Amino acid sequence: MAGVGQARAHAGVPSTHVNDIVVVLVIVLVIVLVWRGPKTLPEIGKMFGRGVREARDEINKSRGDDDSGSSSGSTPA
């Protein structure tokens, strides 16, 4: 039974790593807020959102290239 637990831990991101990531993101956000000031925070958020959107589009495009025969119903624009 120990092998099943190890397989689950490697299948996804363990919850302790997710908690660590959240803590690091909060610390970075506080540092940026102090460094750049609260007025530029919306602009930084827009840039971050744009980057996430582009990354997501690239991931979806590469998945579409890999799964050329899939019937997902969505076509790349």
Short description:
The protein has 77 residues and is mainly alpha-helical.
Low-confidence stretches are 1-10
In total, how many beta strands? 0
Listing every helix as H and every strand as E from the N terminus to the C terminus, the arrangement reads HHH
Structural class: mainly alpha
Q: State the separation between the terminal residues, measured CA to CA.
A: 46 Å
Q: Approximately what portion of the residues adopt beta-strand conformation?
A: under 5%
Q: Helical proportion? A: over 70%
The count of helical stretches stands at 3
Overall residue-averaged pLDDT value: 75
Largest sheet: none
- Our Rg estimate from Cα atoms comes to 19 Å
Q: So what's the overall shape? A: flat
Entry keywords:
mainly alpha, 77 residues, flat, 3 helices
Explain what the structure shows.
With 77 residues, the chain is mainly alpha-helical. The protein has a domain at 13-65. Helix content is 75%, strand content 0%. The protein is built from 3 helices and no strands. The model is unreliable at 1-10 (pLDDT under 50).
Please outline the helices and strands.
Elements: H1 2-11, H2 15-36, H3 41-66
